Amino acid sequence: MALEIIESCVNCWACAPLCPNQAIYEAAPHFLIDADKCTECVGDFADAQCVAICPIEGAILDELGVELNPPGSLTGIPPERMAAAMAEIRAR
Ligand code: SF4
Ligand code: SF4
Questions:
Q1: d(CA 88, CA 1)
Q2: In this model, does residue 89 exceed pLDDT 90?
Q3: Structural domain tally of the chain?
Q4: In 3-state terms, what secondary structure has residue 4?
Q5: In this structure, are residues 69 and 47 in contact, taking their beta carbons and an 8 Å threshold?
Q6: Does residue 77 sit in helix, strand or coil?
Q7: Eight-class DSSP state of 31
Q8: Domain CATH code at residue 11
Q9: Is any ligand 2 atom within 6 A of the Cβ of residue 10?
Q10: Which of 13, 37, 57, 72 is geometrically suited to a Cys-Cys bond with 21, CB 3.0 to 4.6 A?
Q11: Contacts from 29-37 at CB under 8 Å and sequence distance 24+?
Q12: pTM of the full predicted structure?
């Protein structure tokens, strides 16, 4: 039972100080979670603290590989609308 930080992490440092188990550590090229220490915050907080603070959609996954802040969840921009905007920008 542990979460995972992936390569879209921008090394903002927001999550590490909030972890009740000191499970998050600086590494290259991005922060990582020590799976042996992560409890998913069960027993300490109602929500995973790293997920609650992380500003990057898709940077933290659950143990099944599911994005915990999925596309659009933080920006409020529907993924299909973002994809259309990016396609338009690339076409310029
Ligand atoms: S879910 Fe909780 S225990 Fe696990 S890394 Fe995030 S803050 Fe730490
Ligand atoms: S809060 Fe998110 S982006 Fe910032 S260091 Fe943690 S995982 Fe990376």
A1: 41
A2: yes
A3: 1
A4: strand
A5: no
A6: coil
A7: -
A8: 3.30.70.20
A9: yes
A10: 37
A11: 30/5, 30/6, 31/5, 32/5, 33/2, 33/3, 33/4, 33/5, 34/2, 35/2, 35/4, 36/2
A12: 0.92
Measured from the CB, is residue 75 less than 6 Å from ligand 2? Answer: no
Q: By residue range, what is the domain housing residue 82?
A: 1-92
> How many other C-beta atoms can be found within 10 angstroms of the C-beta atom of residue 12?
13
Looking up tokens 């603070």, which residue turns up?
A: 53
Query: Whose structure tokens read 């959609």?
Result: 57
Residues with CB under 6 A from ligand 1: 3, 18-21, 23-24, 33, 38-41, 48-50
The per-residue pLDDT for range 52-88, each reduced to its tens digit, is: 999 999 999 999 999 999 999 999 999 999 999 999 9
Residue 60: both structure tokens together: 């933290």
DSSP H or E stretch at residue 87: helix 79-90
